[in-house]
Specification:
Function: Catalyzes the attachment of glutamate to tRNA(Glu) in a two-step reaction: glutamate is first activated by ATP to form Glu-AMP and then transferred to the acceptor end of tRNA(Glu).
Largest sheet: 3 strands, parallel
Subcellular location: Cytoplasm
Radius of gyration: 31 Å
Number of helices: 19
Structural class: mainly alpha
Number of strands: 12
Catalytic activity: tRNA(Glu) + L-glutamate + ATP = L-glutamyl-tRNA(Glu) + AMP + diphosphate
CATH class of the largest domain: Alpha Beta
CATH superfamily of the largest domain: HUPs
Subunit structure: Monomer.
Organism: Roseibium algae
CATH topology of the largest domain: Rossmann fold
Helix content: 40-55%
Length: 474
């Protein structure tokens, strides 16, 4: 398809998939999917000193968790160095680039002079029009872009609007360093062209690069892709999102118990909106997404809002699917392997699925769910927390002793008959239902708070429930 839209997500593998990067990946993915196009993945690993395979794996893992797939194999930028150099040879041949033999000391003097004259410290074009025959011996040159010195460069941005930069404010930037390695500015342009990128979607902090990269595209005689520079994400205090605000890596949210569909929904709403709607399935997002509805101002990351959104998705997710997400979370939290090993028993997994409808109504994250569900895998005799110990006084133990035989007499071990039996006992003894439920909760879970007591009885089953009650009553 000649006019197929092709976007790209191009992270640097120097760390995890930052939340801002995850949102950029999502916007690229949605725009491509909306138009029936492709999203490519490029690993910008030219900074070999800081790039690691561990970081690459973390980025791919984070994207996979969020459900953001890419077309084709990931492209390594460092593997394309020869293409970058070939583009510069083309520019040298057509006169849009030149070799500069300035020494580091000369460049320092240039900057100092500019500062003394209250000018921006830019390269002054010393070698712009000089003949290579004048080159001093023993100096490895850099290659610079021969940028236009008059007129202006225009970026018609799909989010920021028309951005005009006078060319006098743009200097002859370095394309190839003196050691022969390409710069980021050059590599990005060559890769975007060679990969057939039609739309560059990235953070607004790259807007200053857009004009410079436009000049490189033009110098090579290539079409300039359309651009969309999306607003940054700030912390709750309005400062740029950083580690001090909490988790900033996408995969950290999996360990914190958030669902990928909740994260996608939350991230898409950081900068994009569709009326007053809050909840969007992935199909809705693909259908509705456009840059007409992306604002220019920075978004604030609201952890409380994310938590509430996650609670909504937990309640509305089908139990077996939720169990799959829960297991993925447990695989990334301390002690989770013990719970996973317990769940590996088919009987135990069935118990979890029985308890899940009641559990998910009260939890906003999978971590909260784990804590609420922990009564399921605790071993007898249960160790009680302080609140439960306080409940289990002499009168409570007498109630538990009575309940052992009453509950054992319930033929149909399901919520409704169990509730009828417990309420009948409370009425007969003329005590409030809470005075019966609280000791029962403490005995069954070892906690002062728990999911609904009848849900707990059903999930544990007759034998385990009566055994736990007897442990405390005896």
């Amino acid at each position: 398809m000649a006019n197929q839209i092709v976007t790209r997500f191009a992270p640097s593998p120097t760390g995890f998939l930052h939340i801002g990067g995850a949102r950029t990946a999502l916007f690229n993915w949605l725009f491509a999917k909306h138009h029936g196009g492709k999203m490519l993945l490029r690993i910008e690993d030219t900074d070999q000193a800081r790039s690691t395979q561990e970081a690459v794996d973390a980025i791919l893992d984070g994207m996979s968790w969020l459900g953001l797939d890419w077309d084709g194999d990931p492209v390594s930028q460092v593997a394309r160095v020869e293409n970058h150099k070939a583009a510069v040879e083309q520019m040298l041949a057509n006169g849009t680039a030149y070799r500069c033999y300035c020494t580091p000391e000369e460049l320092d003097e240039m900057r100092e002079k500019a500062r003394a004259e209250s000018r921006p410290p830019r390269y002054d074009g010393t070698w712009r029009d000089r003949d290579a025959s004048e080159a001093p011996a023993g100096i490895d040159p850099v290659v610079r872009l021969k940028a236009p010195q008059t007129g202006e460069t225009v970026v018609d941005d799909m989010v920021q609007g028309r951005v005009v930069i006078p060319n006098k404010d743009l200097d002859d930037l370095v394309l190839i360093r003196s050691d022969g390695t390409p710069t980021y500015m050059l590599a990005v342009v060559v890769d975007d062209h060679d990969m057939g990128i039609t739309h560059i979607i990235r953070g607004v902090d790259h807007l200053t690069n857009a004009a410079r990269q436009t000049l490189i595209f033009q110098a090579l005689g290539w079409d300039v892709p359309k651009m969309a520079h999306i607003p940054l994400i700030h912390g709750p205090d309005g400062a740029k999102l950083s580690k001090r605000h909490g988790a900033t890596g996408a995969e950290a949210y999996r360990a914190l118990g958030y669902l990928p569909q909740a994260m996608r929904n939350y991230l898409v709403r950081l900068g994009w909106s569709h009326g007053d709607e809050e909840f969007f399935s992935i199909e809705d997002m693909v259908k509705l997404f456009s840059f007409d509805s992306v604002g220019q101002s920075a978004s604030r990351f609201d952890f409380k809002k994310l938590e509430n959104l996650n609670g909504h998705y937990m309640r509305s997710t089908e139990d077996k699917e939720l169990l799959g997400h829960w297991k993925a979370c447990l695989a990334h939290v301390e002690g989770g392997d013990t719970v996973l090993a317990w769940m590996a028993d088919g009987t135990n997994e069935a118990t979890v699925l029985t308890a899940l409808p009641g559990l998910k109504e009260r939890a906003k994250t999978l971590v909260e769910l784990t804590e609420s569900a922990s009564y399921l895998w605790r071993t007898r005799p249960l160790e009680c927390d302080e609140k439960a110990k306080k409940v289990l006084d002499e009168s409570a133990l007498a109630i538990l002793s009575d309940l052992t035989s009453i509950l054992d007499g319930v033929a149909d071990w399901s919520a409704e008959p169990l509730e009828v039996a417990v309420k009948a006992y409370a009425e007969q003894k003329e005590i409030k239902l809470g005075k019966v439920a609280q000791p029962l909760r403490a005995a069954l879970t070892g906690r002062g708070t728990s999911p609904g007591i009848y849900d707990v009885l059903v999930a544990l089953g007759r034998e385990e429930s009566l055994g736990r009650i007897a442990d405390q009553a005896s």
